[in-house]
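Sorry, explain these tokens?

___
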Amino acid sequence: MTAKSKSAIVLLSGGLDSMVVAGLAREAGYDLIALTIDYNQRHRIELDSAATIAAHLGAIEHIVLPLDLTRFGGSALTADIAVPKEGVEENAIPITYVPARNTIFLSLCLGLAEARGARDLWIGVNALDYSGYPDCRPEFIRAFEGMANLATKAGVEGDHFSVHTPLLHMSKADIATQAARLGLDAGMSWSCYDPTPDNKACGRCDSCRLRAKGFADAGLPDPTVYA
């Protein structure tokens, strides 16, 4: 693959947002190189969803990269800390925030992009219907993109990287609507942070609440099986 190939590195978690981002990248004419991080997350079932989505969208490559962030801990997703079930607390960063996760993951996307000759990174961050994570804000994305073009051989030689965030200012209802428009089965995606032993969505964590509200607000059926 050369730098002239129209390929995109898509950070594919297996969630609804990442599925829609991948669909939008494909619609824009990119060949998809999907990167999924197996960080030993509590909701590991999302890795199966990522594989299903990558295959459905015809990704030319799907890398599942192991990176055990339970060694760091500091989050309900990577440590023995209960996942909150009482809703999002206003003006507070919840314990489901994984320290520096998007910075770490985008850095891995950047390394893969430079190695593959791709210059476009696509990520499903959202600054509206989200849980207050600092690494989902537009100023973070702008700062990372600037750093990417300072920290790489390609960037300093003028072959610049771009970080695409088409969902940044969408509501969860908008995102659910985009999935339907793209003809993507939302049932392929996984959102729940705390699945039950029989692999049902808990229905009470922040991510489940946002997902359910999004489908309801969009007037679309929610294919999720909730406990």
